[in-house]
Amino acid sequence: MISWKSEEFLEYLGKVRGLSENTIKNYRIDISELEEWLKKRGIALFDLRREDVRELLRDCQKRYSPASLERKSASMRGLYSYFLRNGYIDKNPFESVKMISSPSRLPSVLTEDEVKELLSLERKSFSDERDHMLFLFIYNTGARISEALSVDVDDIDFDHRRVQIVGKGSKERALFFSLSTKKELLDYIERRKVFLFDKGRSQEKGLFVSNRGLRLPLSSAHNIFDFYRERLHWQKAFTPHTLRHSFATHMVDRGADIRFVQELLGHESISTTQIYTHTSQKALHDVYMKSHPHAKKGEDDAGNNDSGS
């Protein structure tokens, strides 16, 4: 739930600027997270200061990829520009605050053993089952976290093991899942029905639900990932992006064509997907060493020379 002034801004984006529903949905997510951040610190929406913005951006940098951070910053800047134009504030706190530069780096990726560790954790409650299903769903389909959270139970085609979604840029694509995941999904949905019935929320459509029985919000999903990173004592980053990156990297490692992976991820440009070829350099080296007739020739010759000296 966001403030009515922020709702006014979102209405402006739709009616005046003509932005798509999916774009406005992303703005809503970003602004909702901003207002939650402010609430935790006792800062009113119109009282945000420049020093607060710097702290906010530093916090966001710890949790989001450079691309997501750039988008969120643009959403928040746009909100406060709107407030300034309409006389709600005297100065835009985002003005003159530079984006914190993020070093260029390859995305964090889990090993296959780490994925197994994550997915084999003991589950004692419905929330444990939901967390497990969220991790499995993203890793099995390559979905973005926003896409996973938007899925309704009725969207799932169990016969063909796929889910039709509207992804980034309002583009429709299919997510596919394995037979073993189908079985786990069906089991989870049965447990979800019981949980929602007990909560008096049987009409909720969302596949992933909060402890209150409502569709799981993005902020809660990120908190879940933070919790499990600490639980597993991992030093590396563990975010929804990490699982999506792991899905793509493991696909490429096992020989999937990069353009096929591009389609599964919903990337418009192949250049975006090619980062996964960098994370798979070791796999490519191993394939070369096993497959090329000359790959070990130099090593064999060196060995023969050593034995003869």
Major sheet description: 3 strands, antiparallel
- By DSSP (H or I, 4+ residues per run), the number of helices equals 15
CATH superfamily of the largest domain: Intergrase catalytic core
Dominant shape: globular
Overall average residue pLDDT = 83
CATH class bucket of the largest domain: Mainly Alpha
Total strands: the figure is 3
- Give the strand content: under 5%
- Category from helices, strands and their pairing: mainly alpha
CATH architecture of the largest domain: Orthogonal Bundle
What letter string, H or E per element, gives the SSE order? Answer: HHHHHHHEEEHHHHHHHH
CATH topology grouping of the largest domain? hpI Integrase, Chain A
The total domain count is: 2
The order of strands across the largest sheet is 1-2-3
Supply Rg.
23 Å
Q: What tags apply to this protein structure?
A:
309 residues, mainly alpha, DNA polymerase, domain 1, hpI Integrase, Chain A, 2 domains, three-stranded antiparallel beta sheet, 15 helices, globular, disordered C terminus
